[in-house]
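Let us practice reading a record.
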Amino acid sequence: MPGQGLNEVASELLRRSRDGKIPWKQTRRDSEYRVSFPDVSLAIFCASGHYRLDLINETGSVIESLEYSPLSIFTQTGKRDELESRSKTLKEIYDLAEAHVQEEVAQRALQYLKQA
């Protein structure tokens, strides 16, 4: 099944994000966060309940994506449990990435204020 390897990546990314081990950064694009490693990056994006996790190679090309859209519940019969699980995973990754970035920015602001 396509995306099976990326499902495993998403599970590990979620686990490590929960542990606070992923240094998420906001991209120039609204509602997108990225973590970069030496030759691969992962980006999580959300818009109107649509979530997408991209696996990106060293040249910046998207190699594979794992997606969830609220409409997919209605268009893909027989996969409801899988889609709901994917939705929860991608939403939690996104929420953790967003919270990490917000906390990092708030801490930097506080540090600057204390030095002023």
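A brief commentary: Strands lie at 25-26, 32-36, 40-47, 50-57, 62-68.
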